[in-house]
């Protein structure tokens, strides 16, 4: 894949003016158990890939950003397609952007990001259209959004609360309230958020992508302040 992309990359390097530094908020929240990285724009964070100690790439649906300093500064990638990026998956040395979903966070079954449409070989700074010539089955590759398995083999999922809209109603409000493991561990975030996805890095740290903090739900829905999404990273490994 690296050989194929060299010609495209050399042409794109001339246009790197489209990639520029954007300052994140001057102060990141401090929590005992979590790193909290704020998105550089007023949208929720949909997906993440990488290592908080090295390079991270995030999607705010229609934009992709890269940071190498734990969110102090963000590099805006050249991604400009009209496809919302729902997830990332690494195949060999190539990072793929997935632009479709199967299922939803609030469903009882697993939900996935799928349909690889763009790829990057520099950890998310430059993106090119992707054609999956080797696809053997539908929806491959795909990555689960509402669940993830730690390197130790423990399954984690987004914890969802369903509340009937009214007594005897078959329609419910669906709210994400944290993360739970198959072994009974319950993880709560420092603030209330709409959680969009979870994943692990190779060091067993949990990554949780989310909206900005919420100070009201349902008919009283309200953000606590600005609408910049938040990425939480557990400071300790989750086994």
Provide an overview of this structure.
- 5% of the residues lie in helices and 41% in strands.
- It is mainly β and 239 residues long.
- The chain has one domain.
- The protein has a five-stranded antiparallel beta sheet, with no helix packed on it. Strands 7, 8, 9, 10 and 11 form a five-stranded antiparallel beta sheet that branches. It has a four-stranded antiparallel beta sheet with strand order 2-20-17-16, with no helix packed on it.
- The longest helix has 12 residues.
- The two termini are 34 Å apart.
DSSP helical segment count: 1
Number of strands: 20
If you average the pLDDT, what whole number results? 86
Instruction: State the secondary-structure class.
Output: mainly beta
Oligomeric state as shown: single chain
Cα Rg: 18 Å
String of helices and strands: HEEEEEEEEEEEEEEEEEEEE
Termini gap: 34 Å
Spatially, the strands of the biggest sheet line up as: 1-6-5-4-3
Residue windows where pLDDT falls under 50 for at least 5 positions: 1-18
């Amino acid at each position: 894949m690296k050989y194929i992309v060299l010609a495209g990359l050399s042409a794109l390097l001339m246009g790197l003016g489209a990639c520029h530094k954007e300052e994140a908020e001057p102060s990141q929240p401090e929590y005992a158990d979590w790193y909290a990285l704020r998105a550089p724009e007023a949208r929720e964070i949909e997906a993440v890939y990488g290592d908080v100690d090295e390079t991270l790439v995030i999607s705010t649906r229609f934009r992709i950003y890269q940071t190498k300093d734990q969110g102090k500064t963000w590099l805006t990638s050249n991604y400009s397609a009209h496809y919302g990026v729902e997830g990332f998956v690494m195949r060999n040395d190539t990072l793929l952007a997935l632009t479709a979903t199967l299922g939803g966070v609030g469903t009882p079954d697993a939900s996935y990001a799928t349909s690889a449409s763009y790829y990057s070989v520099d950890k998310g700074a430059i993106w090119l259209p992707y054609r999956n010539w080797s696809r053997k089955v539908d929806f491959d590759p795909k990555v689960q959004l509402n669940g993830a398995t730690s390197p130790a083999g423990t399954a984690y999922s987004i914890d969802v609360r369903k509340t009937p809209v009214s007594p005897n109603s078959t329609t419910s409000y669906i709210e994400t309230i944290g993360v739970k493991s198959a072994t009974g561990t319950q993880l709560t975030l420092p603030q209330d958020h709409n959680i969009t996805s979870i994943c692990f890095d190779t060091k067993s740290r949990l990554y949780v992508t989310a909206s900005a903090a919420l100070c009201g739900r349902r008919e009283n829905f309200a953000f606590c302040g600005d609408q910049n999404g938040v990425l939480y990273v557990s400071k300790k490994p989750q086994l």
